[in-house]
Amino acid sequence: MILDADIKAQLAQYLELLEGDVLLKVSAGSDDVSRDMLALVNELSAMSARIKVEHAQLERTPSFSVSRIGEDTGITFAGIPLGHEFTSLVLALLQVSGRAPKADAKVIDQIKSIQGNYHFDSYISLSCQNCPEVVQSLNLMSVLNPNISHTMIDGGAFKEEVESKDIMAVPTVFLNGEPFSSGRMSLEELLPNWAVHRMRPNLQTKTHTMSLLSAAGRRVQVRPSMLRAKASGQASLRNALADRCWIR
Prior knowledge:
- This protein is of the alpha/beta class and 248 residues long.
- The chain has helices at 5-15, 32-47, 86-97, 105-112, 131-144, 159-164, 187-190, 194-198, 237-244, and strands at 22-27, 51-55, 63-68, 71-78, 118-124, 148-154, 169-170, 172-175, 178-182, 208-209.
- β3 (63-68) and β4 form a beta hairpin.
- α3 runs parallel beside α5.
């Protein structure tokens, strides 16, 4: 079991708010992270008849996408969204199901009007308190606009990719394969004009040194047991969702 009893009791209340069916397309291997990821999605599916699980081949393994039946909403979690990112997963389930986000109407209209194709990759650490706002903002944009997609990438599960991009702090966001932003940013700050943001490649706000980096800068092994969502620094799932204020 990945989720403890307290988290599952709170989660059950939110899963009752799902307004439509949600499909989790899972790309898993034989590694420990894949096994824990499969255990998580199967637990979610067992808790709600609206959550379906399907095996697929995605760009990264282990990963899973959150979609509507017959419609790709562009949200993917590469790794296991536990710790501080568990709230991001719950919000993605609710918003993909059709639950209206609690966001300003003008901001929603602005997101829906974006033209062109944009794919975001956000590199995060499960212990990072500044990462969920970025992840949730990009997920929301993906739900609202079919031209936008987003993959959350857990640096602990994809260490080689993190090293290849020389990422030393989180959250770090890439747009269409190019550096886009670093540090905590609000939904409004992430919105285009894209050109303005891309002219600021060294943008630094509140960053969090990756938990997979030691003080000497040497990468250390992240054990699957470290990924389990018990409390993980959050008072409760309810408080975390209330802080985001993105569910009516």
